[in-house]
Amino acid sequence: MTNEHTFRVTGMDCASCAQTVENGVARLDGVQSCQLNFTTETLRVSGTAVPQNIISRIQELGYDVAAPDEKLETAETLNFWQFMRQRQETTLALVGALLILPGLLFNELLPMLGWEHPLLDLTSVAALVLAGIPIARSGWRSLRINHELTINALMTIAAVGAVFIGAYTEAGLVMVLFAIGEALEGYTAVRARNSIRSLMRVSPQSATVLRPCIDCETHLGQNGYTNGECPFCGVEPHRVPVEEVNLGETVVVKPGERIPVDGRILSGSSTVDQSIITGESAPIAKQPDDTVFASSINGAGVLHLEVTHLAEDSTISRLIRLVEEAQERRAPAQRFIDRFARIYTPAVVVLAALVAIVPPLLWQQPFIDTATPTNGWLYRALALLVVACPCALVISIPVSLVSALSNAAKNGVLVKGGAYLEALSQIKLVAFDKTGTLTQGKPAITHFQSINCQGNGCEPCSDLLGLTHAVEQSSEHPLAQAVAQAAGAYRVQNRYPAATDVQAHIGAGIAGTVNGQQIMIGSHRAFTDLPHDAHCTAISAAEAEGLTAMLVTADEHYLGYLTVADQVRGDAATAVSQLHNLGIQTAMLTGDNQATAQNIAGQTGIDRVFASLLPAEKVEKVEELRAEYGHIAMIGDGINDAPALASATVGIAMGAAGTDQAMETADIALMHDDLSKLSYAIRLSRSAMRTVRANVALSLGIKAAFLVAVLFGFGTMWLAVLADMGASLLVTLNGMRLTKFK
């Protein structure tokens, strides 16, 4: 039976380490697929392999697996030197750095002093051994287990070759600099990981729950009470771990506390800062029946909440889980670099061998030059191995994408992977659903009229509203909520019993049985033969003004109609304008009639309008737009528009109204119903891809420059290591700038 196992791998300093572990585990019997994400340290393995065998293979490669409850590594409270002392191999590198200083000073920086002594060579070799043993061991393990040459193997070959030609100081310096560079890269990687883990640290660990007093010592023995629930105390507050809070329980949140669970307010009013979830800049007023998110900060009021989600299913928990999973969905650019790196290292070894052999054989150039080592072609080949190290190239893309993903999450935009972030940067058109996206999604009944109308507020019209409510009360559609609100206002919500056998007809309406009658409620287009000319004219006029009409029949006999209006979102026109400023076209796809759609488009500035579309027709229209524009995004509520969202290049869901579904349906979810986040997400994606291209160009450019210098005899091995280390740091720091993107 195929199983899936997840491990947290520790001890990795660079993306190449992750590649080594991934390739090693993939070679185990019973492993069908495995993927290790360096930024999250998460290894996912599927197949029939035994977990202990997987752990043993990871340890055999020189890394380790953290226990499930082990504390996450942090670099926020440690400086770099403290971080270096945490592991034996990095501590040895620090000792090696001290030992290499004499040789560096007198042999490399100040050779004109002519101060030579065997002790200088001895300390350099000692530095080589101390810093190089972990590196050589790692390179050998990869060669033996994975049958592949890694960066560590390249460095070992270069250092041993340098010793062979008598360049002891360079050999030691190469190993020391490489070890410190790897540790520095690991240090910055830990800091990058913390940008996501900072979300975890805001999750409350305990909650105050109202529960009965159990085994009350104060009242034992009174009126026959011996144990169990105390009949005298009633419920009282208990502080318990948040994992032990059950659905339906009542949680008390004091002023200034973080809300521990997702819940519905039973009593109390307050303002709540939920920016950690939605990215909203200002606290939101909350009152009874409103929902609140775990990790939000309560304001000045005391709140009593009904628990609606367990701790592991809360919005913040799902957000963290989905963001970490998002980092494992590699963008096309990252997958290309991963494939490139697999063939790059062996190719470099072959090239270095040719550099060492061909010039001496064909042109009688010196193989080893004892007087000026950099003139020898063996030295140049060894330096080539060092300068060609692909660290900077491999890390250039993931660090940028992870930084962008974490920035988006902190600002209320959940992007489910680097692939979607890259696709978003290429968008040429954004297609909007209307109801709940461009509009508030809270329509209101503006007029209702029975075929037997006797005047304003007459009994037949009230009866029509009550009958409509009997069917619509089983629906969650925004139009049904408008009917319920009007029925309550006119006090006809209980005139008829709730309909039975209720069925929603997609794109046509809803039907149900009330007191033995088959009631059908639908749009004007669903009733092609309307036997009432006056109503037909009135309905057409209302629709021409942008209103939505709902027609009602009983056993196929027409009873009357209701009209509904929806308000445009206050930020819709601004959001559309922002997209236009980014050079992106806009379109509206809606099931409403053409007049209503044109009315909304006129208020928001939408470029193109496609109205009266059934869900299947929306999918067809999305595919037509993709053929026309190449890359398009579709934004909707994440439920009714799911087929259209899936058909677009990027599907974007408005998350606040239906967070559960939105987070699981679309490629991107706006956690707060703020359309301005759309242009922010596109700008962030474009900035991320610009950073990716800059990082790749930077890493390749630095290597190309030093490659030329080495081949012409102007570069040294230790300067090549510095160049590689510098390039790795530059691309890492450049990518991490995206965490501060505004």
Instruction: Report Rg.
Output: 34 Å
Would you identify the regions where 5 or more consecutive residues have pLDDT less than 50?
Answer: none
What is the percentage of strand-forming residues?
A: 15-25%
How far apart, in Å, are the first and last alpha carbons? 48 Å
Number of helices: 24
Mean pLDDT: 81
The assigned structural class equals alpha+beta
Helical residue percent? 40-55%
Strand order of the largest sheet: 14-26-25-24-15-22-23
Oligomer: single chain
Q: For the report, how would you describe the main beta sheet?
A: 7 strands, mixed
Tell me the overall shape: elongated
Number of strands: 26
Report on this model:
The chain has 742 residues and is of the alpha+beta class. Helices cover 49% and strands 18% of the residues. Helix 4 packs across helix 5 and helix 10 (332-363) runs antiparallel to helix 11 (377-387). It has a 7-stranded mixed beta sheet, sandwiched between helices. Among the domains are: 3-71, 2-Layer Sandwich (Alpha-Beta Plaits); 75-203; 206-308, Calcium-transporting ATPase, cytoplasmic transduction domain A (Distorted Sandwich); 444-565, Calcium-transporting ATPase, cytoplasmic domain N (3-Layer(aba) Sandwich).
